[in-house]
Design brief:
761 residues, alpha/beta, Rossmann fold, Aminopeptidase, 4 domains, eight-stranded mixed sheet, 19% strand
């Protein structure tokens, strides 16, 4: 379809209010261009809701194609609570009305905008702009983490949002208080929206019907590449912006494989993220007459030829991958690298990822995981979908949401910062006002933060601009951002708040004091002031060049006299634990449950700066050492031994094994003589902990240290330990444990131990 060839225009002339005519005009324009339009009604809330009803009438849209996202009740239309806007994911509506007067958030806006179909209208009801910027609501209350109050929360995010509404094309602005149309939002862009039609490849493997179900040539091309999943040792990476049909293509591929009798595992951050995959797969199987009914689970489909498509949670999909024929990972950018790597155990795997959207950052997926994918045994095929499906190219609502929510934020081009070194960069404080004054700076800084985490949401932009407890530090090279750290101020909590935490109450934004107080029973942990490194990221073009450590060093120097400690919490991996250890952070806690999304245990680490900070660090490090031996034998019995080794090596205190004379004789007897480890395992555990906390004191191999963790600390069965660590037999494994204790006896043993040793030498 081609729009009329006139230039883009936007009539800013104020006009008399006629909502129905305005809605009709914008609806006609949206339908003509297969794009969407945005109507903003500012002013009294009741008047805004009345205007929204007028829009529905003027646009002449059936009631079942309309959704109101509002806290108000009593509508004859479909209604969704703002905090449950995620229910709209994977659905389309002709008109969506977002009531921003209560419970508004950036996340809600992003989710709602994505649900409007081509030819449809997004209607935004807001307070008067100046009032909206200064108003404080439930979202601001969530930003006001103790000891801050809502008076400390700013309105910068909403101020920026209002600014984009006032000057972006395709947006109508209506002032309900004055009864005027300030901008009518007329917008016809003189470009062609013709899209190439899909075709059926002559050499296809998948059913003809699957290609006939494709809506664009892009989607058909992606499906053709996904045929590679029928062969082992293959991987396909499908990248797209939102609304390009990548999930549908994945569903058609899954359905095609199931029609061949294949077992396909589908995984995603949550079931709802994978809904479109299953919808398209089931539709295809039904069209092929190959759908096997009987399962009541819409996320578990079967074909009459024995094929199956089933959803498996990310933390369990790695194990399922070993027996499946293929794995389809939707919204792969929202999953951590450790889990993505586990999916490579499947014979074939498809990674479908959103490049720009709140589900995750495709660039982050590429930067953090792509090297591991390329090093695997899989032959990798890349495909990208550019043609929109739900609406035509050039859609002003899409470009506005990208701009307003920074969904397209990205770090500087690699060539501009490739020569950055720790000596050539400048350390800077980037205040919210600095970021608002320089859109390029904001985009570069936020773009790096997106890469720092496997899931960054639009709400994070609002937090960056408005939350009183957050502050941003950066390294810049010739004015370009090369490394950033987002810091959260914690602590300085009054006695009542600390008592509330101790009794089990949750306190927002104070993660470290919360864990120390509620879980580790330290009611005084909320007194010191600390800064937690929420996220830290360095541009991928200059990683491993010392910039991250340079940034942390500058932060330490800046806050040395203004805070009691610096801290961090993260999903524990050996690499991350070693990085923080090299920057003088010490382990004080390992969580005893895995993160539902990442599947990792979290580590908490502290770098004390003051006397109070040292007291906090030292007592928690000591408590950690006291309990970790027992915890590894219980809740952490499945912890990766290399994570355990790195966590213990990062404990910043000395540990004396304190064995009795009798225990030393048992240990020496089991290492140098004929004794048995099982005689006094507690002695062996304390000695193992002492070594792993200070591994430099005695020379053990990596395998010997893993043996200490798996057998002595985690009390795994001899047979499973021998199997995992590559010993030929349990007997060889037992002898290796005795050998591993010989240098520990030499290093830690006193006169009694050494005299006992001489008997066997």
């Amino acid at each position: 379809m081609t729009t009329p060839g006139d230039d883009a225009r936007d009539d800013d002339t104020a006009g008399t209010l006629d909502v129905e005519s305005l809605a009709s005009a914008r609806r006609d324009e949206a339908m003509d261009t297969d794009q969407r339009r945005l109507l903003v009604f500012s002013g009294d809330r009741d008047a805004g809701i009345d205007a929204a009803f007028d829009v529905v009438r003027g646009a002449d849209v059936p009631e079942d194609e309309v959704t109101f996202v509002t806290t108000r009740e009593g509508f004859r239309f479909d209604r969704v609570e703002p905090r449950q806007a995620s229910k709209l994911l994977g659905t389309t509506r002709t008109i969506v009305v977002l009531d921003a007067h209560e419970d508004f958030s950036a996340n809600t806006l992003g989710r709602v905008a994505g649900a409007v179909d081509g030819g449809g209208l997004l209607v935004l009801l807001t307070p008067p702009p100046d009032e909206w910027v200064t108003r404080r609501d439930s979202f601001d209350e969530r930003l006001a983490v103790p000891p801050f109050t809502t008076d400390d929360v700013t309105g910068r995010f909403r101020g920026r949002l209002v600014s984009t509404l006032r000057d972006h094309p395709g947006i109508a602005l209506v002032n309900l208080d004055t009864g005027t149309v300030e901008r009518d939002g007329a917008y016809r862009q003189g470009i062609s929206f013709d899209t190439a039609l899909p075709s059926v490849p002559s050499d296809r493997r998948f059913p003809r019907r699957a290609y006939e179900d494709c809506l664009t040539a892009d989607q058909a091309d992606a499906l053709a590449e996904l045929e590679a999943l029928a062969e082992p040792e293959t991987a396909v990476v499908v990248e797209a912006d939102r609304g390009r049909g990548k999930s549908s293509a994945a569903g058609l591929a899954a359905g095609s494989l199931a029609a061949e009798g294949r077992d396909v595992v589908v995984t995603a951050p949550g079931r709802r993220n994978a809904a479109e995959v299953f919808v398209r797969a089931e539709r295809l199987l039904r069209e092929l007459g190959d759908f096997q009914s009987g399962s009541a689970d819409e996320f578990d489909l079967s074909s009459s030829r024995g094929g199956r498509i089933r959803y498996v949670a990310p933390t369990e999909a790695g194990a399922a991958a070993t027996t499946a024929d293929a794995v389809v990972v939707d919204e792969a950018a929202a999953l951590p690298v450790r889990l993505l790597t586990s999916f490579l155990d499947a014979p074939s795997v498809a990674f479908c990822t959103t490049v720009r959207g709140y589900e995750g950052a495709g660039r982050g997926f590429a930067v953090r995981f792509r090297d591991r994918l390329d090093e695997s045994s899989h032959t990798v095929t890349d495909v990208r979908l550019d043609d929109p499906i739900r609406y035509a190219a050039g859609d002003p609502v899409e470009s506005w949401t990208f701009r307003a929510l920074l969904l397209d934020a990205r770090p500087p081009v690699a060539q501009l910062i490739a020569d950055a070194t720790p000596a050539s960069v400048e350390y800077q404080t980037l205040t919210p006002d600095d970021l608002l004054a320089d859109e390029h700076l904001l985009r570069e800084a936020f773009g790096l933060l997106v890469l720092a985490h496997y899931r960054t949401e639009p709400d994070d932009l609002a937090r960056l601009l408005d939350a009183p407890n957050l502050t941003l530090r950066a390294l810049t090279y010739e004015g370009r951002v090369v490394s950033v750290a987002l810091l959260a101020r914690e602590g300085n909590l009054d006695a009542e708040t600390r008592r509330h935490m101790y009794d089990g109450g949750r306190i927002r934004g104070n993660m470290l004091p919360d864990v120390f107080t509620s879980q580790l029973r330290d009611e005084d942990a909320g007194i010191p002031v600390g800064y937690r490194v929420m996220r830290i990221a360095t541009h991928h073009a200059v990683r491993s060049s010392g910039l991250g450590s340079r940034l942390l060093s500058a932060i330490r120097d800046e806050f040395e006299d203004d805070a009691d400690y610096l801290g961090v919490g993260f999903g524990a991996t050996p690499e991350l634990l070693s990085f923080w250890r090299e920057n003088d952070y010490g382990t004080v806690h390992l969580s005893t449950t895995r993160n539902d999304t990442s599947g990792e245990y979290s580590a908490l680490m502290l770098l004390p700066l003051s006397t109070a900070g040292h007291a906090l660090h030292d007592r928690h490090a000591e408590w950690f050492v006291q309990r970790i031996g027992d915890v590894l034998g219980d809740a952490l019995s499945d912890l990766d031994p290399d994570v355990a080794r790195a966590a213990l090596a990062s404990v910043d205190i000395d540990d004396d094994p304190s064995l009795s004379d009798y225990e030393w004789r048992v240990v020496v007897g089991a290492s140098y003589g004929p004794g048995l480890y099982t005689t006094a395992p507690g002695a062996f555990r304390r000695l193992a902990l002492a070594h792993l906390i200070s591994p430099e004191r005695a020379s053990l191999t990596d395998r010997e240290e893993r043996l200490l963790v798996r057998k002595v600390l985690q009390t795994q069965r001899w047979s499973s330990v021998a199997d995992e660590l590559g010993f030929h037999s349990t007997a060889q494994c037992m002898r290796a444990l005795g050998d591993a204790y010989e240098p520990l006896v030499d290093e830690y043993g006193g006169d009694v131990a050494h005299d006992e040793r001489e008997r066997y030498l």
